[in-house]
C-alpha cells in the first residue's frame, strides 16, 4: 500500500522547544523505500514532496494522493528522480527511460502517468523522488553523471573532500523551481556542506545513502546560533526549513542527495555561517 503523509511547517521558536522525539517526528523521513510501494511525504515548506519508489518484480505507478486535489500528480507539479538502486525503467506517458545507478530524470508538469519497474527483480531499483509546484511545462530529460556540472570542494585536512554532481539544475536543464544533485564524500572525509549556510529563499531536503553497515550520519539543523541534531541511518531523508542550516558528519564517508525549491534557481544563493560562530 502506498503512503502519503503531510507535515506542517514550524518556526524557529517552536523547534527550540522540541526534544529528540519531536525533532525526528517533524523532520526525519525514516521509511523512504518499501517493496512495491511509493512512499511520499509532503512538507508545507514550499509544498515540497520527498519520497521513494521501490518496484520488486512488478511495475508500480506514481499515485495521485487525494490531498493534492489534482486530476493527476503532475497536473501542477514537476518531478525529479535519482536512482539509488538496481537498473530502473521509468515510463512517463509514452516515453520510456532507463536509469542506471546514480542517474537522474526530470519529468515536467502535465505528464499524466508515471510508472516504475526494475530490470532485475533480484536487484530492485530504488527511485528517490522530489517534487515541487510548477508554473510551466518543461521537457522531461534524463541526466547522467556525464551530463552533470561537477564541482570538487573541500580537502582531506578538513575532512570534507567531496565531489558535487549538479544533476537537475538550471545550468544543465530547465526546471521551474526544483533542483537536485548528489554529493559524494571521498574516503576519510565525513563533513558535508561545511561551512554551513542558510537560505530563506529556498527549503531543502537531504537523503543519505551509501552509509556503510554499522555506521551513521549526524545531521545538523536549526538556526546558526541554536543548532539541533538528528542521527540518521542509510536510505533516510530529512526536511530542512528555509531558516535552518543543513549539514552533516558521518562515522564514515557516504553520499547524499540534496533537493531544493523556492524563490529562485540561484545555486549560490546562500547566507554563510562561519564555523566558529555556530552554537
Automatic annotation (TrEMBL):
Keywords linked to the UniProt accession: Isomerase, Metal-binding, Zinc
Cofactor(s) needed for function: Zn(2+)
Molecular functions (GO terms): 4-deoxy-L-threo-5-hexosulose-uronate ketol-isomerase activity; zinc ion binding
Domain of life from the UniProt record: Bacteria
Cofactor note: Binds 1 zinc ion per subunit.
Pfam families associated with the record: KduI (PF04962)
InterPro entries: KduI, KduI/IolB_isomerase, KduI_N, RmlC-like_jellyroll, RmlC_Cupin_sf
Pathway assigned in UniProt: Glycan metabolism; pectin degradation; 2-dehydro-3-deoxy-D-gluconate from pectin: step 4/5
Binding site for Zn(2+): 197, 199, 204, 246
PANTHER family reported in the protein's UniProt record: 4-DEOXY-L-THREO-5-HEXOSULOSE-URONATE KETOL-ISOMERASE (PTHR38461:SF1)
Protein family: Belongs to the KduI family.
Listed name of the protein: 4-deoxy-L-threo-5-hexosulose-uronate ketol-isomerase
Gene encoding the protein: kduI
Amino acid at each position: 500500500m502506498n503512503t502519503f503523509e503531510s507535515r506542517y511547517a514550524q518556526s524557529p521558536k517552536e523547534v527550540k522547544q522540541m526534544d529528540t522525539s519531536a525533532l525526528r517526528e517533524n523532520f526525519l523521513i525514516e521509511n523512504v523505500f518499501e517493496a512495491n510501494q511509493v512512499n511520499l511525504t509532503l512538507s508545507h515548506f514550499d509544498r515540497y514532496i520527498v519520497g521513494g519508489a521501490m518496484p520488486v518484480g512488478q511495475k508500480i505507478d506514481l499515485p495521485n494522493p487525494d490531498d493534492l486535489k489534482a486530476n493527476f500528480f503532475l497536473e501542477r507539479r514537476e518531478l525529479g528522480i535519482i536512482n539509488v538502486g538496481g537498473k530502473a525503467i521509468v515510463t512517463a506517458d509514452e516515453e520510456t527511460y532507463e536509469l542506471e545507478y546514480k542517474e537522474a530524470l526530470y519529468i515536467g508538469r502535465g505528464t499524466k502517468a508515471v510508472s516504475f519497474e526494475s530490470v532485475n527483480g533480484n536487484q530492485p531499483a530504488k527511485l528517490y523522488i522530489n517534487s515541487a509546484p510548477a508554473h510551466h511545462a518543461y521537457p522531461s530529460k534524463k541526466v547522467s553523471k556525464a551530463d552533470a556540472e561537477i564541482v570538487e570542494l573541500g580537502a582531506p585536512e578538513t575532512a570534507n573532500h567531496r565531489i558535487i554532481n549538479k544533476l537537475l539544475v538550471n545550468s544543465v536543464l530547465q526546471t521551474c523551481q526544483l533542483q537536485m544533485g548528489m554529493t559524494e564524500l571521498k574516503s576519510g572525509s565525513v563533513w558535508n556542506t561545511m561551512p554551513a549556510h542558510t537560505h530563506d529563499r529556498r527549503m531543502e531536503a537531504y537523503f543519505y545513502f551509501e552509509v556503510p553497515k554499522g555506521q551513521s550520519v549526524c545531521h545538523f539543523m536549526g538556526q546558526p546560533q541554536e543548532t539541533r541534531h538528528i542521527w540518521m541511518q542509510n536510505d533516510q531523508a530529512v526536511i530542512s526549513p528555509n531558516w535552518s542550516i543543513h549539514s552533516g558528519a558521518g562515522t564514515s564517508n557516504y553520499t547524499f542527495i540534496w533537493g531544493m525549491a523556492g524563490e529562485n534557481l540561484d545555486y549560490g544563493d546562500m547566507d554563510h555561517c562561519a564555523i566558529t560562530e555556530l552554537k
